[in-house]
Batch of 2 targets.
Target 1
Amino acid sequence: MAGWNLKNGVITDYCCSDDCLWSLFNHVFSDSSRKRNTYKFGFIKALLDNLFNGFNTAEGLFLSYGQIFGRFTENYWNLVVRYNLRQMRSDGRSEFSRLEIILNEAVGSNPVCAFLEFDSLDFIRKTEIIGKVADECRKYVIGALYEDFDGVIYSFDLNGSGLTVNRCVYEFMLRHKSELEKLNYYAWAKFLEKINSGNAAVYLLDKLEAATPRRGDLSVYQVILRKEFEENNCFYCGKKLGGRVHVDHFIPWSFVRDDKLWNFVLACPSCNEKKNNRLPKHDLLIRIEERNRTIMQSDDSLVQKDFENYSDDLPSRIWKYAKLSGLKEFQDNSRSA
């Protein structure tokens, strides 16, 4: 049975070496792995984007299909609807993949939608679109990618609610997240360049880098942290916050690629601008983990949503892997007396 037609699969090797995994990932990124469309690249990106959203099991990291295809759809919304990039080689019958057709039909007769972030659509419309995309891609990408990875990457059942990433693969993806994202972007851009005439690879790479949009307005988090939890001092220097308050990603957004309350702190403009895309000092992990234990007791729906699948050691683990990926520490953050 061809991989794309598989209905389920079990993990074939729980102790795969790094050399073996690099070989398998490089195979998928290469032309040796058959691709008529970009679904495999999009699926790998969705897995990388969700590494901090699943929950741990004895076998590895469980991710629901809703989590995976929610991010998968959001990424493609930008590429297809906003940037009008074709995602499939012509098969003689159509120049567009079923995914592109679903997204363009969702825009329909309302061209304004083409200028909106996916997250700006109403809940019912988003849910409907994600459902259609998931129905299409569950059939054609999960089994195909499983076969490309020789059954090592995850276990799955298309009749179930999600898949489980092999623990050794999960740890590998965390250790090499930045490198894998760059390799995936580059291979994806090369594929797109062949089927989108007039677009230089550098511009395609820029579009892929921006495919997961950053939430534009973080003021709701400022309100929650400052008013509900009385955080009135800069997390880094300890000085009293004045009128200008910045909401900062404790672990930089460039690594986490997600907006979650457990990773937000309030900072003065000076500290936030100096920290920029760097990691906080390691000893601040104790403070944010203690702070998060307090916040997660709240009954607020946004708090509960953002702390879903959170664990006490999550910031420490992410900090370690971000450091291994090349992010440097922000040193000028000693608290005032």
Note: DSSP finds 14 helices and seven strands in the chain.
Target 2
Amino acid sequence: MKKRWSSIILGLVVSTIALAVLLRRDFSGVRDELLGARYWAVLPCVAISIVGLWLRGVRWRVLLNGRLPLGRSFHILNVSYFINGVLPLRVGELARAVLAARVDPPVPPLTSLSTIVVERLLDTLAVFVLIGLTLLILPVGLEIGLVGAALGIGAVAGVIVLAVFARRPAWAHRLLDGVGRFLPLLHGPRVHRWLDQVLEGLVPLGSPRLAVQAIGWTAAAWTASVIAGYVMMFAIFDQPTWAASMAMIALASFAIAVPAVPGNLGPFEAAVVFGLAGAGLVESATAAPAVAFALLLHVVNLGSYILMGLIGLWAENVSLGDVTRAAQALRARQEAPALPEIDAPLG
């Protein structure tokens, strides 16, 4: 409990500092930009974002090897994004596992959580594809390109290792036995049963057909995110660029891993403005149009997640309190492995 409070306090400090830095120079300019914004851009942005969420629901169903109906995978995914947007400590990922376990036949929680690990690895690859495309368009230093390439190679290596274990689960058990000789806590039938559940979630990566489908749906979902960001930029900017959309989507995805208050208020805005500035759309990250756009985008983003999450709760016939309590109980049983924190800010 003490660790959780420390995380919450740290997040509050980070969010406060980030917002103070962004708004310290030209608050009146930000207000004027928001008053003069073209709010017609919000509706197509939200519509495209919902398409992106649907594509992610399709991908999750593929990773679960069809164990969930498409409608339920879509609604459960939306509930998880909603909870992540309004509650701290990434409870939404655990909520996804809890809701999938209610389906008949149920999906074991560790199977759901292992598919989320695969999702994050695929999303990491997608982010570095965006960074690579942005670097092809913009003149940047070689060091930035090398860092992006190194992280992308690491994500590819992770997917390859998981794919190997999916096709050769016995190898994963042998590795666990070897590690268990040095770490007794990882030795015993219970740990091997846990590993079997994790490997079950990796099955799609062991099938070339399902792996190609998962990669294809990932590409489609991130394309929708970039298009939604591009359309949304018309609210503030007269001449948006695709490079700016790709840059701010990529950086905002990393902002999810930064400690902050629920909804990533502060780090999200900072990531967006630095993406816009890096792509040359604004002269500086603290320029009033950039800050105004980041705030507006965040409101639209959270509003979309809340709307679709509430619809998801209604479709699943559960309350927010019931889901969060069950998710916290799952964490208390220590059945939830640590999950990578990266995702698209739009759909």
Note: Residues 104 and 190 are 24 Å apart (CA to CA).
